[in-house]
Design brief:
Blueprint: H1 2-14, E1 17-29, E2 34-43, E3 46-51, E4 56-62, E5 67-70, E6 72-74, H2 82-89, E7 93-103, H3 106-113, E8 120-126, H4 127-135, H5 146-149, H6 154-169, E9 175-177, H7 187-199, E10 204-206, H8 217-231, E11 235-237, H9 240-244, H10 248-260, E12 265-269, E13 274-278, H11 292-296, E14 298-300, H12 309-318, E15 321-325, H13 329-337, E16 342-343, H14 358-373, H15 379-386, H16 388-394, E17 415-418, E18 439-444, E19 447-451, E20 454-455
Parallel strand pairs: 1-4, 1-5, 6-7, 7-8, 8-9, 9-10, 10-11, 11-12, 12-16
Antiparallel strand pairs: 1-2, 2-3, 5-17, 13-15, 14-15, 17-18, 18-19, 19-20
Helix pairs in contact: 4-6, 6-7, 7-8, 8-10
Length: 471
Amino acid sequence: MKLFAFFLLAGVLSGQTYDIVIANGRVIDPETNVDAVRWIGINGGAIRAVSTKALQGRTTIDAKGLVVAPGFIDLHEHGQDPEAYTFQARDGVTSTFELEVGTADVAGWYEARRGKSLINHGVSIGHIQVRMKVMKDPASFVPSGPGAYQVATPEQISEMKRLMERGFQEGAVAAGLGPTYTPAATRWEILEMFRVAARFHASCHVHLRGNAESGEPEAGLEEVLAASALTGAPLQVVHINSSSLSHAPHMLQMIAEARSRGMDVTTEMYPYIAGQTRLDSARFDSWVNRPEADYHALMWVATGERLTKASFERYRKQGGLVILFNNTEEMIDLILRDPLPMIATDGFGYETGNSHPRSAGSYSRILGLYVRGRHVLSLDEAIRKMTLMPARRLEVRVPAMKNKGRLQVGADADITVFDPETIRDRSTYENGKAASEGVRYLLVNGTFVVRDGKLLDGVAPGKAVRAALSR
């Protein structure tokens, strides 16, 4: 009788019809190390089967010759708007997060995107933005007035702590900090923000104090390693490539040593030799009376022109985005080969009609140039850095992330299907608004966003990725 019941159940399962079946693809799951041809069955927005045998689907896509991977997870993307999401989707991204600058209004940030988003999205409660609010800074993104240059009173720090706590209660997935943009924030003020994050089991995503061009970036890393050690708050060092430049070997060694002693420290990088930020930020306070050649390393995003000392001073008063060419391919290769850094874009939106190419092409650039073209890292390792590693960074505070970054039964059907022989980035510094090629299908919560290489209109399956509300 038991044997009969077993065969009856097997017959029912083998005859099941799924909403969507991805057939014959090279399935790569970075958690179980599966790298083999499989069939994937999807129902109700989740993966319900991963099989070596054919499955039946109401919709079936033939992925023969294609790689089927978890959707890419970007922990550092400032362009959190519908247009930016379209470029991220065509780059294979299914979940995107603003975790460095963040927001001072977590509830409002999520409400503004509810039911309207192409891909999944989440945000931090940002010390930069909170400090700007408390100090009444007039800027909108990073401070240019009191938020950058005024030392906070004990009462103001207390108000910042209250706003940070409120953000966590409203479901912020992390804490964002950028001491390089808030140079007047004392070490004690930064430490107090880490203490708040630790109480909510939230990671701190930090743009280190100072910059690698004008001083020792190791000092900025020491500051936040100490804050993490003292409070127990996990630490994510953002864009280690642009924060360390030629100091990258030292910085990576310091992070590895901290981890070897049990600290929860991680980092990220983007695959470009140039960065981008606002010219009117405190980041450029040290750029006074430099050699003319230094200013030529800056490109004004709105026009594509290289700067001179005169145009630097003019545009700094005006305010806006600038691209800074300050790194080398040798350092990018070195950081990519290291097992610690995950991939994140530090992308921006397209307010001026252009943006840094990383906003549209980071993941395809990794797969096309550094995996296929130059063999700097393996395909499996690249996918791990784009999926599982960022998912694990957030899953302590946001348990829903345990269902992302994986291709397993029960995981969310956030899936990227790409052609490993043709995927490539097309965005450039002169034209950052060129979509990547090679992502053939993209599913977000089991809904097609990209199909047959084309972005679909009229779909908005992206969901809020949010910690539990505690108010």
